[in-house]
Amino acid sequence: MDVTAYLDPLGDPTPVRCYLVRRWVPGRTELHGWSTADWRLCDVGTVEDAIAWARERAAGSPCEVFVVDGVAGNYPLRLWGAAPDDASTTIGIPLRREDLS
Which of 7, 16, 49, 65 could form an S-S bond across to 45 if both were Cys, CB 3.0 to 4.6 Å? Predict the structure, then answer.
């Protein structure tokens, strides 16, 4: 039997330098959508430390943690959390027909 590792384990991965933490804040009324408060965490020990920091600041609001590699043009990669299910807002505008006679 010939057994070969499908993926070689990471020997010494490049440490993550910075994380982006995004907290979603609901609007004051149902007519206001969500806003965000973003923080950049650098020199964090581990991803668990970044998530713990995010959970503490979120105070029950939806929250996300992204890894940021600092290379221009690369988008952050979400590691934990999610945006709120209703991040978009639909506004109904009642129309009234004016009697023009």
Answer: 49
